[in-house]
Amino acid sequence: MSYRVIALDLDGTLLTPQKTILPESLDALNKARQAGAKVVIVTGRHHVAIHPFYQALALNTPAICCNGAYLYDYQAKKVLQSDLLPTAQALRVTEMLDEAAIHGLLYVDDAMLYQHETGHVSRTINWGLSLPEAQRPVFRQVASLAQAAAEAQSIWKFALSHADTTALQQFAQRVEKELGLACEWSWHDQVDIAQAGNSKGRRLAQWVAAEGYQMSDVLAFGDNYNDLSMLETAGLGVAMGNADEAIKARAGRVIGTNLEPGIAETIYREAL
After folding, report:
1. Which residue in 255, 225, 212, 239 sits closest to 67, CA to CA?
2. What is the pLDDT of residue 1?
3. Domain count, the chain
4. CB-based burial, 33-47: b 16+ in 10 Å, e otherwise
5. What pLDDT digit, counting tens, does each position of 80-96 carry?
6. Are residues 229 and 185 both part of a single domain?
7. What is the pLDDT of residues 151-188, one digit of tens each?
8. Full domain range(s) for residue 183
9. Residue among 9, 11, 217, 223 flagged as catalytic
């Protein structure tokens, strides 16, 4: 079968550990686009942190951001669809974070905000500083995440990290139970908190249908738990070799790691 939509997670999937795209992947995706396939980024990232990859891929499709919280049109520079995190619930999350001494990033509007500079935050900031100025995402330290949340027009998600993953897991379970929010793991020590119902698979299915396709037309690549909603509903869901065994077990196919040209090889086999 020749899949007509190629959906790509970024970190751990299309991107190497150095946050670069393999030349083999770039070449295969360019050929797929020339052949008429739609290529779409489906990521946990904020839209301001996708610029270098979107431009490298020369895309004209909108990006699915923050695990499906919103669909962003880079050409028009606007949000097309979204399901926001309600302010009242976001404020309660900030209270719970203070109680648990867990920190992270708050994704709002056109910026990523932090109150305390954890290791995850420092790494993200340093990555941004390594980019050309026009591609740098907006990171801003604030005196209070609660005040920032109260003043934000749109709250997309929290991205929380903690060295004690057991404590982080317990916190996520508490948030799900008390607030009914969605908590998805996007890295081994990072959990994302967003409006219930948001997922990569749900937003992707909406966009695919609007484009006149079905999920059976989709070839999707991912590596983590927040990718399962699209890997399990796509025509072919492909897990990376660096994914957890639980992800591989639920994918339609497993390829090499994000340091190997498995994405390109699969595209040539399935979409060209």
Report:
1. 225
2. 56
3. 2
4. beeebbbbbbbbbbb
5. 999 999 999 999 999 99
6. no
7. 999 999 999 988 898 999 999 999 999 999 999 888 77
8. 87-194
9. 9
